[in-house]
Amino acid sequence: MTDPYFFGYGSLVNTRSHDYPDPRPALLSGWRRAWVATPHAGQALLTGVPAPGHRIDGLIAKVPGGDWAALDAREAGYARHSAEHETQHDLPHRPRIAVYAVPGAAHQPRQDHVILLSYLDVVVQGFETVFGSAGVARFFETTDNWDTPVLNDRAAPRYPRAQSLTAAQTELVDDHLAQVGARIT
User: Fold this and answer.
1) Residue 70 parent element (H or E)
2) Which three-class secondary structure state does DSSP give residue 71?
3) What would the 3-class secondary structure string for 86-151 be?
4) Residue among 102, 88, 133 at smallest CA distance from 33
5) Does residue 163 surpass a pLDDT of 60?
6) What letter would DSSP give residue 76?
7) How far is 67 from 183, CA to CA, in rounded Å?
8) How far apart (Å, rounded) are the C-alpha atoms in residues 78 and 37?
9) Which of 17, 38, 101, 155 is most exposed, with the fewest beta carbons within 10 Å of its own?
């Protein structure tokens, strides 16, 4: 039996935020991303949303021995869904693949929830590393609810897996936020 994989479409694309083996680019068909309100103290989370005819870039990586406990704990607030039939990758075999999504979330932005900039920085750094600047552009294009306010917490990151960005990566994030008309608070 082969180890299962997960499909990450947000912070899990950034391999600096985890050490799961065999990470590789992949594509998930029938989904988009959205920032959604959650019970997490006013913080918006990035989630996958089923969307026929759409697709999103991401990363698959192995879950050794099928031990999902640590990943389930990291992805608290999300539910794990089977995604092997929607995922395209370069593996020579067809492993089981799961994707995490916020269950039953009202997939609408709320002005009392914020996107942590330190969280978004981790996501964009991962996309830039794996897919280049074109991949970052696709991330912003295939993600909804950019009218959710963005909290600039770079000086004191609230995101637990915050990473240091290069000046060019910071500029890349800021430029794309300006392009989508994001409101930084």
Assistant:
1) helix 69-74
2) helix
3) CEECCCCCCCCEEEEECCCCCCCCCCCCEEEHHHHHHHHHHHHHHHHHHHHHHHHHCEECCCCCEE
4) 102
5) yes
6) T
7) 40
8) 12
9) 155
d(CA 41, CA 2): 38
pTM for the model: 0.93
Residue-range domains of the chain with CATH: 5-179 (3.10.490.10)
Strand partners, 88: 27
| Max Cα–Cα distance, the chain, nearest Å | 49
Q: What are phi and psi of 139, to 5 degrees?
A: -55, -50
Q: What is the pLDDT of residue 59?
A: 97
Q: Which amino acid, one-letter code, is at 185?
A: T
CA nearest neighbour of 89 among 159, 29, 1: 29
pLDDT tens sequence across 135-144: 999 999 999 9
Q: Is 124 exposed, middle or buried (0-12, 13-18, 19+ CB in 10 A)?
A: buried
Tell me which residue of 37, 33, 27, 25 sits closest to 51, measured CA to CA.
33
Pairing of strands 115-116, 79-82: unpaired
- The β-bridge partners of 59 are 8, 25
Q: What is the mean pLDDT of residues 76-95?
A: 93
